[in-house]
Design a protein that fits this description.
Blueprint (H helix, E strand, L loop, with lengths): L7 E2 L9 H5 L5 E4 L2 E4 L10 H5 L5 E2 L25
Antiparallel strand pairs: 1-4, 2-3
Bound molecules: iron/sulfur cluster (SF4) (2 copies).
């Protein structure tokens, strides 16, 4: 997966109804040979409108989960029970 995931369109499911193409607020989607295609990925804002609207569940928007590093503990964060004798 790339650093910027993009909507994935399953062409086996897509019936070419054109709904996602009509709904896409940035005109990132188009249709080629009767199937929806992300023609302009650079325009996609990842709004999820296409995924929500597709009646065939043909569009999936993968998300990257980035785990943050826990903040370093400062000495003052120590509980009294953790104090050295
Ligand atoms: S809404 Fe779904 S079925 Fe219709 S064109 Fe888009 S991807 Fe294909
Ligand atoms: S996620 Fe939004 S901007 Fe991106 S292709 Fe789908 S409808 Fe268009």
């Amino acid at each position: 997966m790339t650093a910027n995931p993009l909507p994935q369109i399953d062409h086996d499911r897509c019936t070419g109804c054109h709904l996602c193409v009509d709904l896409c607020p940035t005109s990132a989607l188009g249709q080629v040979d009767g199937k929806a295609v992300l023609l302009y990925p650079e325009l996609c804002t990842y709004c999820t409108a296409c995924e929500d609207a597709c009646p065939e569940d043909a569009i999936a928007l993968p998300f990257l989960i980035v785990l943050a590093k826990p903040p370093a503990r400062k000495p003052l964060d120590r509980k009294p029970s953790e104090e050295k004798p």
